[in-house]
Automatic annotation (TrEMBL):
Self-association state and partner proteins as the record states: Homohexamer; trimer of dimers.
Catalytic residue list: 126, 418
Family, as annotated: Belongs to the acetyltransferase Eis family.
InterPro entries: Acetyltransf_17, Acetyltransferase_Eis, Acyl_CoA_acyltransferase, Eis_dom, NAcTrfase_Eis, SCP2_sterol-bd_dom_sf
Domain Enhanced intracellular survival protein: 315-415
Protein name (Swiss-Prot/TrEMBL): GNAT family N-acetyltransferase
Amino acid sequence: MNLDPRTVSVAEYPHWLRAVGTGFLRASAGVPGEEEVALHLARTDLDRVQGVFEAGRCVATFRSFAQELTVVGGAKVPADAITAVTVTPTHRRRGLLGRMMAADLAAAKERGDVVASLIAAEYPIYGRYGFGPATWTTKWEIDVPRAGLDPRRAVPSEADGGRIELVDGADVRKLGPGLHSRVAARQHGMVSRDERWWQRNTGMGVPALETWTEPFYAIYRSPDGEADGLIIYRADDRWGDGKQPLNTATVSGMIAATPAAERALWEFVCSIDWITTVRSGHRAPDDLLPLLLPDPRAARVATRADWLWLRVLDVPRALEARTYAIDSALVLEVRDATGLAGGRFLLEVSPSGASCVPTTRDADITLDLAELGALCLGDGSPVRLAALGRLDEHRAGAAATADLVFRAPRRAWCPDVF
Ligand SMILES: CC(=O)SCCNC(=O)CCNC(=O)[C@H](O)C(C)(C)COP(=O)(O)OP(=O)(O)OC[C@H]1O[C@@H](n2cnc3c(N)ncnc32)[C@H](O)[C@@H]1OP(=O)(O)O
């Protein structure tokens, strides 16, 4: 039986969608109806959809799409975003993912994408294809009565001068994209959101397979009226036996362009009457949140995990696009078994720019491409990798120099799932 991955026709696409549902263990994953298929098709480039078919049934799926990734310093590079990777349980471990990945990465390299990106369902899957965890996520759960915030106080404070407004989904679709681009311009690790993202995340055109309940949306306006922050949250309805409110607010998204907006929005959600627990959603590991509370121990880390994985496709462009804080030079030997991106490179950096070119000089450090993926947004430590035996140092102190070269002032953060 021919099990070659190939692109998918419009007629086959509903069956491909069913296979995605099966792979992601959605119990009701039948062949979706016309309306549902049209919703997906509207945001899908079929040239970048791969499937494997056997006896008319789709048994493997893979899709990629164009994305922009913010690197350290705020520049954006084109990324090949990978999603909907599934192999039906009857066909697993026969190399189907490996073949779909190889075809997609080769096409991305050909197109000129600088990196490939994905959110890994499980840690052990993607390292073998050259991906490394470039950003990490932390979710906090705040015990509001323990946080030390004064419940008698209005939020934001009078001294702040800004205000918070509850808005609806249409306002978010209007204000959100501009705010998001301001935030993404200063936060490495963030990825682009298209119009469909804003529609789906405000309840428009949500596929039937995904359940949707309308959230609350609040924006923070600075004293001069600028929408500087947005928080999206839902609340449950739980009461104790003694008639005490014990409600939880679960934040599904919060972006802020200024520290004032960030403070005001967290204080706001922690000050809503009846709310005794706040779940933060995906934040950067160095988020201001716990330290914004008078008692940071009221914020318990509920989740800490790898998040956005990157696979560098073009080492010089990936390393020249970002900024560096120091003057330095390093020769990196980057191993890539696929031959797509590896080689030996001289990286010369300074606060005013960087150059990365192939070289025949002796290498200072050798590392696999997956480790470079983990380092390129400044979120990993070459010294730790050396201690783990995953980076070879050919000159004493080279790993410590690499630590200083790659370091970024704040941790990388990707708030999105795709
Ligand atoms: C970006 C995203 O969409 S993330 C979502 C990923 N999808 C899922 O987790 C859904 C459930 N799982 C699956 O559908 C499948 O098991 C997949 C897609 C993860 C793997 O597909 P397969 O076709 O079985 O992978 P394939 O046979 O090509 O395996 C290649 C290698 O990866 C390894 N591998 C694959 N999946 C896993 C895993 N979950 N854990 C550990 N190793 C794995 C295989 O053992 C194999 O190793 P080898 O090269 O040393 O022999």
